[in-house]
Amino acid sequence: MPARKGDDKASKAGDTVSGADWSEREIDGATYMLVSFVDLDLTEATIRGSTFTECTFRRAKFNASKTEDSAFINCTFVNCNFFDAVFTQCKLVGSKFERCTYEIMRVVGGNWSVVSMPGSDLRTAKFEETRMREADLTGANCDGSSLRNVDLAGAMLDRARFNKCDLRGSDLVSLDPTMVELRGAIVSLEQAVVIAEALGLDVRPDD
Q1: Per-residue model confidence as pLDDT tens digits over 144-165
Q2: Is 58 exposed, middle or buried (0-12, 13-18, 19+ CB in 10 A)?
Q3: d(CA 22, CA 40)
Q4: Which tens digits make up the pLDDT trace of 51-109?
Q5: Which of 23, 34, 61, 84 is the most exposed place for a label (fewest CB within 10 A)?
């Protein structure tokens, strides 16, 4: 079925969009501010160059959608489904996620700093080359996931699970190994030194 273009740019600040079907649509260059989206279906939609500022998404379906070079600034996502969604070079600074699902979601590049995702199940999600400075991942389950070359400086990681997670190339300075689970996590030698020093070990080269 060909992609459709509809009235997805018609909403004004303060509007509520309820039950809209934007599946398979191309949303290009749209701008929204303070719009509440309820039960929005974005399945297989393509979003490019669009900006959402302080918008709220409740029970939105982002399944198999592709979002590129777009921004969701200080947005709130509640009970949303991101199954197989791909975000490429997107900005989600300050956004909050509550009770969302992220099965096989992929994030490539972009700025996700100060996002709030406490307790999120990210076991099948992948983040690559993403900036997540000061992100709240408290209690997040990242077992078996991949966070490659992710900037986690200042991130809140207490009680998070990273068992068998691929963390190579990521900034782990904010990670307290006594407050997270790391069994079988994949790290580089340089990162292993950072973790060892965080445990109070005195790491020295062989004499």
Answers
A1: 999 999 999 999 999 999 999 9
A2: middle
A3: 7
A4: 999 999 999 999 999 999 999 999 999 999 999 999 999 999 999 999 999 999 999 99
A5: 34
The first and second tokens of residue 67, run together, are 């979002």
